[in-house]
Design brief:
Chain A: Keywords: 4Fe-4S, Iron, Iron-sulfur, Metal-binding, S-adenosyl-L-methionine. Chain A: Pfam families: Radical_SAM, SPASM. Chain A: This is Radical SAM protein. The complex is a heterodimer of chains A (about 350) and B (about 450). With about 350 residues, chain A is an alpha/beta fold. Chain A is built from twelve helices and ten strands. A nine-stranded mixed β-sheet of chain A has the order 8-7-6-5-4-3-2-9-10, with helices on one face. With about 450 residues, chain B is of the alpha+beta class. Among the domains of chain B are: about 120-270 and about 280-305, no CATH class; about 305-370, no CATH class; about 380-440, no CATH class. Helix content of chain B is about 55%, strand content about 10%. Chain B has 17 helices and eleven strands. In chain B, helix 6 runs antiparallel to helix 7, helix 9 packs parallel to helix 11 (about 235-260) and helix 10 (about 220-230) packs antiparallel against helix 11. Chain B is globular, with a radius of gyration of 27 Å. The chains are: A alpha/beta (about 350), B alpha+beta (about 450). Chains A and B meet through helix 1, helix 2, strand 1, helix 8 and helix 9 of A and helix 1, strand 1, helix 2, helix 6 and helix 10 of B.
Chain lengths: ~350, ~450
Amino acid sequence: MGLLHRLYARAAPEVWETETRLLHALRLVRRPVAVQWIATAMCDLRCPHCYSGAGKRAEGELTTQEAIRLVVDELVALGKPTFVIAGGELLLRRDIAEIVAHARAQGLEWAMHTHGGHVPKFRSMFERHPPTLAAISLDGEARQHDLFRGRQGSHAAALAAIRTLKECGCPEVVAGTTVTRENADRLADLFPLVAASGADSWGLHLFAPEGRGAEHTALCPTPEQLQRVAAFARRKRGLFHVELCNEWGSAGADDRFYRDQPFLCGAGRISCVIGATGEVLPCTTTDLRESEGNVRDRPLRDIWTRGFRRFRSAGHGECSDGHECWLQARNGNPCREQAFGACRKEAV
Amino acid sequence: MRRWWLDLGGFAVALALAAAVVLRWRSGQVALLSSTAAPAIRLLALLVVFVQGCADRLRGREEPGGQAAERRPAAGSEDMSDGAGPSGQGSRGMSKEAGEEPGPAPQLEADAFPLADEAALGRWARLVAGDGFDAGPGKRLALALVPMPEATPAQDPRWLQVASALEALADAAGGAEGEAFRTRWRAHVEIRKAGGSETIAELQALLTTMEALPLLHAGLAGYVWRRAAPLPAGARERAELLGRLERHLRACEALLKGQFETGPIEFTAWRSKAAPPVGHSGLRVPKGLLGAARSHYPGSDAGTWASEATLTLTATDGEVTLLRAGRAERLQPGQRFELRRLDALWAGRPAKLRHDELGDMSLGAGAVASAWDVGPRLTPAGREQVRAQVAAAQRGEAQALERLRAILPAAHLEIRRALAEKPQAPGSPGLRTLLELFDG
């Protein structure tokens, strides 16, 4: 494996493209590595940057039996990718413990994204079935986080959730910060809080003008802020596990300074998203025009195998460009050059 | 006989696979890649890339200026691993006078990669790599010590974390080197708790005990720089410490690049009921990491220390010597250069430097200047300009923050003063974030 890693990491993009061409020629499709399920559109917070515009339950959300049969069982048939549950706020679904228990009984690894406010209520579930990875949103210091999230005490709840999940045996708890124009220049104040929170790593996401975010485009960080945040993250990696998430796009050869593995946009290639109503999307967009089908109409296996064709042929269009985050590029907001362009110019 | 059947079987399987592919092509169908076939496809892709790479290299060798030559990154392109080494950095924008030794060049040992063998690499890995539950002891010490604010009272509980991390690191290192490290760093922590100040020689000793372990860690090296920067020092002494730090940081960069190539250091928990063998750490250092890091070292620079938080200056007369990476180079009148945080300037006689926006700055006879203290050397008008920009940034003006980023060495002291005065001003968090780009 060491040799494979060495060979692969040395020329990861080339290997990926060659492998894609080979698979294309052989009419084969990769199995997904992770499938995210938007368990519900319900959320008790009203964050302005929410990509899913979460709030009320969506009409026609998957029922418990549908979630088990059309999502969990299909994932087992797809080779047991990591089952990522997100929302909305997944812990507002009353049947979440049942679905998680079923997934675990089938041998699926599971992970989740949550704002953390309801984690203590589900302590027994986490103790029985600790997720392999849990991401807790943390947008700033207490005052800023609570203001942004619209609820007093949500910052304290997020920190408590991190501690609870660690106590329950979750091997990797990530503090996730969506970088916006408002908090980009406050990361130095947030760093000590994250480092002392008990989280294993700090994932820096980027604001996307999707969902409720589309109504708050002024939250999009400026190119200068992106550069400063990238430079900040690079320095802090020596002290703590800080990672620039996929929305940042590729930094080319400089990826090694910002993340553990070379950048790869997994949309439709190694991952996909099942919406709350069963629509299968390449990534966390809520735009149903991007849907490849609904799990109520066709099995997920079939949608995965026959859909997402534009993502799977090397060499044409933005969808097959492994250097950008597809979602950001789709929104006309490619961040790679903005964030790393100047850093790279200075660095060589 | 048996072999004949095997061949026939293999042929039949290959034929069946080819037929399946042809049928899929004809019907326009696709199939899921099975988990058994996936590694085979990955291997095939690796092989294709490897062969393509060999062909490209051969073509590049045969045709001067061929593809391989074209792919070599030019200045401003992506790959830092080729080209911009310390010597390249050192001479960028600077002319050398052959045979001239214009200033107090420090006495540094030969520039060799500091980890001599696999055993040293293993010792380093134990100090920096995590065990799946905790970060490595080196990282823990850095995380506890580096963000500790100046003048933190001795009763602050964070000092307990520093002490605990320090003891854990010294214990993990063990031996006489571990004890020497413990003694030196304990003394340093006590000095800090008491609010005292060290000397450059003491900080050199901290670095020496670190490197003897061997603990190569960019965060801790940056910490030593940060402690040393405000201290008074002679040109040779300053240049020697900065030269050593530069090599330390280059080695860290080389190890990082090496790991990206060979794969990271991995930890596997001991799963047997029997006790693990003596000295078992569970860490797997990838084969070839030492070779990869060694090969990267000559071409590596000091990372962000070489490229960011710099100040572009012009030497107005020929009296200034730039001390960089253990070498001394006399700057020619009118010569532009980037002053980096790991550089020192020495003036034998009174001299002037110019910044395009901030104007002149002066160096007295025998003065030693660095990125830390160029700000106060500006003329009153230049200092006022910096002060105005810091005030604007502290009011929350985004443009001012970016302008300050371009002149961080000249502005950081003013930023610190402003932050001490108004830590809660609207723009103060932005200034604190900006300062991190200078201090780390």
